[in-house]
């Protein structure tokens, strides 16, 4: 595609639409009105003679022609923007870094890891929520970095693996003891094996796959959403069956789920990073230690384009470094 004669302003607007995924998001990024963005994109499509975006009920999706154009112009336009950007005056404080992600991971792992940067003067503005809405807001320029629970679709966002979280089936010791009473765990020779926390133990090692999920019938399930996403995934992965349960308690924060389970309200499936301290202390019991536990990979996603704020790069680098120990 010939781009030499295309208007530079139209190309800037095109790249903002491409990266934000909507005319509205691009307008917000550029400080323009949405009708202006729409008019400019129609003009660019007339100049190129090709459709660049497919209009959707929410936002737009790029055509292959748009993918080709973005690949050709993104780096030069970002370099030009960096050159044109005024150099901050000496002593000027950088803008706050806008970081978003799951509340539990940010509060338990990310914010403690970033404490040294804050002590050095880096300012943070933290938002929490579900991954898909946060990624939409990232495309619209509301965040600089998002910790996502899955890799974003498409090519408009830059995502790198951050860390793996392992899911654990847990309950308080009182429930583990009741579950042990329901079971008759025997070794291959027919002798009764000691039971620890609902898992048969021989020679100090947990017997893999020793827990029959049927023993959990009647035990209240504590979860963060009515559709039981984490628990359903655990059941499919570990037990190879569908989970048909109704939650006894739903709390839209896994820290609340953890508190309820530790207090003896019932059982749940939680990320290991969130409950490891209580597992170590004995306040919680892992009801099963499968050889192949379900694992979810989190991603650190950055708003595309040239980074105006050098502190964004510092926060990103420290998070990636700290995540190696999570």
Helix percent reads: 40-55%
Question: What share of the residues does DSSP label as strand, in percent?
Answer: 15-25%
List segments where confidence is low: pLDDT < 50 over at least 5 consecutive residues: 185-209
Number of strands: 14
Count of spatially separate domains:
3
Number of helical runs?
11
What spatial form do the alpha-carbon principal axes imply?
Answer: elongated
List the helices and strands and how they pair.
Layout: H1 8-20, H2 23-30, H3 34-48, E1 53-55, E2 60-62, H4 64-84, E3 97-101, H5 103-119, E4 124-128, H6 131-139, E5 145-148, E6 158-171, H7 173-182, E7 195-196, E8 199-202, E9 205-206, E10 222-223, H8 229-239, E11 249-250, H9 254-262, E12 267-271, H10 272-281, E13 285-286, E14 295-302, H11 310-322
């Amino acid at each position: 595609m010939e781009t030499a004669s295309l208007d530079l302003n139209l190309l800037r607007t095109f790249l903002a639409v491409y990266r934000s995924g909507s005319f509205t998001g691009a307008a917000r990024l550029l400080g323009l009105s949405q009708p202006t963005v729409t008019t400019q994109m129609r003009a660019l499509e007339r100049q190129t003679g090709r459709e660049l975006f497919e209009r959707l009920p929410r936002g737009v999706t790029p055509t292959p022609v748009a993918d080709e154009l973005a690949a050709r112009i993104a780096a030069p336009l970002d370099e030009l923007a960096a050159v044109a950007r005024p150099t901050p005056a000496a002593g000027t404080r950088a803008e706050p870094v806008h970081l978003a992600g799951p509340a539990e991971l940010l509060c338990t792992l990310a914010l403690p890891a970033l404490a040294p940067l804050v002590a050095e003067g880096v300012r943070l503005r933290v938002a929490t929520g579900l991954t898909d809405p946060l990624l939409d807001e990232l495309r619209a320029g509301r965040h600089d970095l998002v910790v996502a629970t899955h890799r974003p679709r498409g090519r408009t966002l830059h995502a790198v693996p951050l860390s793996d979280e392992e899911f654990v089936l847990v309950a308080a010791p009182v429930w583990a003891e009741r579950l042990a009473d329901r079971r008759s765990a025997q070794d291959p020779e027919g002798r009764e094996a000691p039971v620890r926390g609902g898992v048969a133990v021989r020679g100090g090692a947990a017997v893999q796959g020793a827990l029959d999920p049927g023993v959990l019938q009647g035990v209240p399930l504590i979860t963060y959403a009515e559709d039981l996403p984490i628990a359903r995934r655990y059941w499919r992965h570990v037990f190879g069956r569908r989970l048909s349960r109704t939650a006894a308690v739903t709390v839209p924060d896994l820290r609340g789920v953890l508190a309820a389970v530790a207090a003896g309200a019932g059982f749940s499936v939680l990320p290991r990073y969130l409950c490891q301290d209580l597992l170590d202390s004995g306040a919680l019991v892992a009801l099963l230690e499968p050889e192949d536990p379900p694992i979810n990979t989190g991603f650190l996603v950055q708003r595309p384009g040239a980074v105006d704020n050098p502190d964004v790069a510092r926060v990103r680098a420290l998070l990636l470094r700290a995540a190696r120990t999570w």
